[in-house]
Amino acid sequence: MGHIVAKHPVMSKPGPIYKPGPISARPLSGLLGATLNEAFAKQGFAARELVTRWPEIAGAQIAAHCEPLKMQWPRPVEGQPQEPATLVLRVEGPMALEIQHSSDQILQRVNRFFGWAAVGKLALRQAPLTRKSRKPLPQPPDPAAVAQIAAGLDAVADDDLRTALARLGATIKRN
């Protein structure tokens, strides 16, 4: 009688186990930077910072009533230096005259930002500004709820800390 020999598959060593590397989140500005730069370039902006940092550049009072719309660069003439651009500002109707009177100051600030005389004049377009929606300020917590929570915090010796903790507790409870 013959013996039946069962053949076992040769066991090989297991391969290396795949371990994913660390997750690296990239900022949205890094992912969209080229797209945003292209969109701003179509409006004549060499750098998007003029738009994104407008309140810092123009000042809060001026920026509250106008915003950069586009920059218009004159066609270059061969052999001649590049002429400065015209900065087109969107201005709220009633403030157009005030912004026009501040045009020298705005030009100085913009050119100081660029580091050279990039802008030679302003053009104003009257239109509503694109306002960023602001969240309403949160209402303070109910004083009765603060007093009730503060009464349960007699283990806290510092009065200011007890009051702050009571306000925090009442706000959390309300939300």
UniProtKB/TrEMBL annotation:
Pfam families from the UniProt entry: DciA (PF05258)
This protein's name: DUF721 domain-containing protein
Organism this protein belongs to: Rhodopseudomonas palustris (strain HaA2)
